[in-house]
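Fold it.
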Amino acid sequence: MHATPAASQPASLATNRVVRALAARSGRRAVLPFVTAGYPSLESTERLLPRLSQAGAAVIEVGVPFSDPIADGPVIAESMHEALVAGCTPAKVFAAVKRVRPQVQSALVAMVSVSIVDRMGPVAFAQQAAEAGFDGLIVPDIDMNDAPALRAACDAAGLTCTFLVSPTSSPERAARIAQLCTGFVYALARLGITGERSEAPDVKPVVDRIRAATALPVAAGFGISTAAHVDAVMAHADGAIVGSALVRRMREAIAAGRSPEDAAVELVTALVK
């Protein structure tokens, strides 16, 4: 039995796109595709975001390239490296999102390392992200002792604030993390780094631990790449996050002389039912 999505959201987020997207899906599965900003170029990212929205993505995660992606597997790590080499910066990501925001109906969340947030300062980063058109932040590598300050900065900027719960998190730690989140809680479907797997993940234990602590929606990610995986995840969670599979298809399309945006849209369209 899924919890009521909006039950634990602050009143200030009532009109936030993330909250609305996950609260009313009209029977459609909430697929949350991840794209690396600036891969293969920022122009490609700008073309892709509106098309993913048209394909039915509930929330689009935009990865801000970082030189030391801790949990990202080789596919995403390589895409971030290429984006950085090409000169992609947080400021350029913000500018690109601002240009296309009017064409994107889906919610947009920035997945960003805490080191990037700290460099700018939580308040300034949250304000600039909101001004660019982002609806929320996901900060996968934050120390939970620093999370309340970022949560406050996001609240003030009207952004949702999402952190990650691991399959090995104790009920107490899962509760602490979940209660600091707004928008949704990110459940790690597997241990290790991101990347495609052949078998579907068993997300029930970690999702149940999160649901015991909050009524927020739960989206699961890491190793989700097929419609069967999405089915398995959606039996328990409210959303399925797809990252490495999408970036890999973009890379394969480039190698084959095809449009990487076409390849990404084809995958998302097949996963959204």
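The CA atoms of residues 116 and 191 lie 24 Å apart.
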